[in-house]
Amino acid sequence: MNRPTRAQSHRAHPAFWAFVAHRASGLALALFLPVHFWALGQAIHGEAALESFLAWTRNPIAKAAETILVLLLAIHLTGGLRILALEFLPWSPRQKTAIAGSAGAAVLIGLLFLLNLGAGA
Amino acid sequence: MSRARVEAWLFVAQRASAAALGVCVAVHLATIVYAVRGGLTAAEILARTQGSVALALFYGVFVLAVAIHAPIGLRAIFREHLGWRGAALDAGIAIFAVLLVWLGWRALGGLFG
Amino acid sequence: MRGMEPGTISVRVWRGREDGGFAEYSVPRRASQTVLDVVTFIQRKLDPTLAYRYACRVGMCGSCAMTVNGRPRWTCRTHVAKLGAGPLTLEPLANLPRIKDLAADLAPFFDKWAQALGRFVPPAESKAEFAEVPPDSKARQAADAGIECIGCAVCYAACDTAAWNPDYLGPAALNRAWTLMNDVRDAAGPARLAAIAEAGGCSACHSHQSCREHCPKNLNPTASIAGLKRMVAKAALAGDIE
Q1: What confidence score (pLDDT) does residue C5 get?
Q2: Taking chain B, what is the end-to-end CA distance rounded to the nearest angstrom?
Q3: Which residues of chain C have pLDDT under 70?
Q4: Distance from first CA to last CA of chain A, Å, rounded?
Q5: Number of structural domains, chain A?
Q6: N or C: which end of chain A has fewer CB within 10 A?
């Protein structure tokens, strides 16, 4: 098979990088899901078990991971809504605006989370 | 059922679950942003969830939608980046979907029961 | 002299098949020089064994596309001056087997075109009446938007989904299928719908939009494929896929 041996500049446009963000965030979320469900499943063993898990998440590393997860979820949400609009609504010539808008909204959600995370800590 | 029909249905399932998740994830994110104020405690979470039929139904649908959506997305990733395809992949993906429903609903049982 | 630009262009050209390598050439820089002019200069003056493909030289036939500095382009309408002052790197189109030097094997590209039933199929019995095709109907406008494809395979070479998924029919074949699905005279709708609903059909597209970005004719295969996705989804819900 024939691949460009130089810089793959055919990818140098926002829609491709929006795809990369969507795929990477989707993959990370899919891998995180079983862990998330398993952790919430601690509630089966009663309030104490859930609380001991939550206590563990109060360290800075867990909080950083939480923030990244919220950001990934926001990226996948806003990017996904953009893709649904692209596929199921009449074509809009403003694709780059849509990509910028979805990225901006995701960052905003991430910041809002950080702000609230700091509010009670 | 022809292969074309199966693929078409997988596409519909992927996009329909995406639309449902659009609503679910937006509500989920809003809840997270609201709930982390002042930190999370188990008592707080359980006070909100236990006995709430509406929330249980909402999260029940949420789990189902994500258990449809994520495995179909992973299937594309396996095919395109690892060259894995065929019946073995589809079986693996189906097992992952069942695992998600089981783990998800099991967790809901603890939170809402 | 007026219109002459001094200097030379340093050109790296892929020679051989898959296991070949780059050869370097020095070509005099001229005004209004296209990449195809550069290749032709090398073949005529420097190395007659260089293999490449072209026919019309005016952007109609779709045979001269190559990878120019890492991205696919129609070389007859690509001016060297617009690519900057640096060296040129020329390779055959990506995502296709290499035959020799700058000639890629387009057989898989056209095989997929056929697989997508990308040809007009008239009804079995000729109708007594001419088909009425109102130019301003929604279907005709959708078909018109994609009809100017010259089959140059630039979109196919630019498509990462085609690179990653060997089953994927590709932007050009699907764009052609979309124009035919919107042709009221065509009689192969159900068969074509089944062909494009397959694993390598429209649902394999992830809307990278590289096809739209690089199409020399400024067509939008991504939009055509989105149209097919809606068509396939609707047919699946109605139980109309064979």
Answers
A1: 53
A2: 40
A3: 1-6, 127-128
A4: 55
A5: 1
A6: N
The residue among C67 and A44 whose pLDDT is bigger is C67
Q: Which residues of B touch C232 (CB under 8 A)?
A: 8, 11
For the stretch B13-72, pLDDT in tens is 999 999 999 999 999 999 999 988 878 888 888 888 888 899 999 999 999 999 999 999
**Nearest CA of chain B to the CA of C167: how many Å?**
10
Q: Distance, in angstroms, between A44 CA and closest chain B CA?
A: 4
Q: Which of the listed CATH numbers 1.20.1300, 3.30.1890, 2.60.40, 1.10.287 matches domain B3-112? A: 1.20.1300
DSSP 8-state symbol, A62: H
**Which CATH number goes with the domain that contains C195?**
1.10.1060.10
Cβ-based contacts under 8 A for chains B and C: 47
SS3 of C79, please? strand
Q: Does A23 touch chain C (CB under 8 A)?
A: yes
In the block, tokens 């926002």 appear at A14
The pLDDT of residue C4 is 46
* pTM, entire model: 0.94
CA distance C15 to C101: 4
The DSSP line for B54-111 is: HHHHHHHHHHHHHHHHHHHHHHHHHHHHS---SHHHHHHHHHHHHHHHHHHHHHHHHH
At C125, list the tokens. Answer: 């019995």
Q: What is the mean pLDDT of residues A53-74?
A: 92
pLDDT for the residue A44: 81
SS3 B65: helix
Q: Which residues contact C146 (CB under 8 A, 6 or more apart)?
A: C175, C176, C178, C179, C219, C220, C221, C224
Counted domains in chain C: 2
Helices (H) and strands (E) in chain C, counts: 9, 7
d(CA C151, CA A29): 39
Neighbours of A, requiring at least 3 CB pairs below 8 Å, are: B, C
| Contact: B36, A120; criterion CB under 8 Å | yes
Backbone phi, psi, residue C61, to 5°: -90, -25
User: Could you give the C-alpha distances from B30 to A69, A74, B36, C11, C178, in angstroms and in order?
Assistant: 14, 11, 10, 56, 40
Is C70's CB within 8 Å of A4's CB?
yes
What is the residue type of C88?
L
Chain C CB within 8 Å of residue B4 CB: yes
What is the structure's pLDDT at C1?
A: 42
